[in-house]
Amino acid sequence: MMRIGSWSFSNPAVVAPMAGVTDRPYRRLCKALGAEYAVTEMAASNPRLWDSVKTARRLDHTGEADPIAVQITGSDPDMMAEAALFNIQKGAHIIDINMGCPVKKVCNVLSGSALLKDEDLVARIVERVVNACLPHQIPVTLKTRTGWDRDSKNALRVAKRAEDAGISAFTLHGRTRCDFYQGEAEYDTIREVKAALRIPVIANGDIDTPEKARYVLDYTQADAVMVGRAAQGRPWIFREINHFLQHDTYLDPPTYGEMKDVLLEHLEDHYDFYGEFIGVRSARKHIGWYLADTPDAAEWLATINKIECTKQQLLAVASWFDQHDPNAFLVQSTAAIEPLSR
After folding, report:
1. Pick from 15, 124, 206, 228: most CB atoms within 10 A?
2. Residue 307: its pLDDT value, please?
3. Catalytic residue at 101?
4. Tens digit of each residue's pLDDT (9 = 90 or more) over 157-207
5. Three-state secondary structure of 248-281
6. What residues have CB less than 8 Å from 75, skipping those under 6 apart?
7. Cα–Cα distance between 310 and 315 in angstroms, integer?
8. 192 vs 213: CA distance, rounded Å
């Protein structure tokens, strides 16, 4: 069992924050399918952006199962502390600091994984955010990478300083910033960090099967694994991992009938959250992820992007499933998915 502040989690598979993916509908779905803990998309620390429609939508947690974990990003300690307090007022139960995002537009403003090049600044940010959250009894977590590049891995030093500053859990992606999502994640650094810390450590990077989850947990002795890209279009991976770890047996994959119910429910929640114009467009990637590996969906998926009405999109998806035996088991691979995990 993993504890973050006053929150306890018995299931060791959790949802990674992913820009453009881990919105409220997606988090709600993953939590319903076995992930007790899910972190939001990055929320900007710049107060000038808090009134934007995009930020307001990201901070809408209506109907989401507790705890609400909000990830904030930025490089100014005072601004980050202010952002933490703002999100606590919006319902956050856990504040997660992003120091792992590798994309240029984040790193160019010395946020995300670019902060790994300035360990003193990392310590000041963490200390300032922790002190701001302490009176509210809100735990603070940190997510980062192993270092800026392979010649400057400093995750252990960063982790120790963050623990000394009062964070409640540490999530480590087994790649450097310069690795982006190329090659394979390494777990030696995660193992080293876990051995050195007293707080929970969550292992992230290339967790795409129940067997991989068990291997990483056993090898690193981490308290949990964080699943990102492998859960895109496959939100049931969390219950599959939990079942395998608890019973040492495989859970049957979903049937086409169950997958239809899950996807249609996801789409309806997605449309309600985003509205007609954005909803029908932003749903396309999810539909593509769900059906990408089914044997006869490729040609049909080429037409889904032409639909510009949520009702028609929903009917088209339902119609596709109606052509399949609802009791047949889905066969789905974990082949290359666009690198969106942060």
Report:
1. 15
2. 94
3. yes
4. 999 999 999 999 999 999 988 787 888 999 999 999 999 999 999 999 999
5. CCCCCCCEHHHHHHHHHHHHHHHHHHHCHHHHHH
6. 109, 110, 111, 114, 115, 121, 125
7. 9
8. 18
- Read off the pLDDT of residues 224-248 as tens digits, 9 standing for 90 and up: 999 999 999 999 999 999 999 999 9
Mean pLDDT computed over every residue of the chain? 89
CB within 8 Å of 53: residues ≥ 6 apart = none
Which one from 30, 101, 107, 133 is the annotated catalytic residue? Answer: 101
Q: Are strands 7-9 and 2-4 parallel, antiparallel or unpaired?
A: antiparallel
As a whole number of angstroms, the distance between CA 153 and CA 279 comes to: 41
Percent of the chain with pLDDT over 70: 90
Tokens of 277: 């114009």
Q: Which two structure tokens, joined as six digits, stand for 284? A: 């396309």
Report the C-alpha gap between 75 and 99 in whole angstroms. Answer: 9
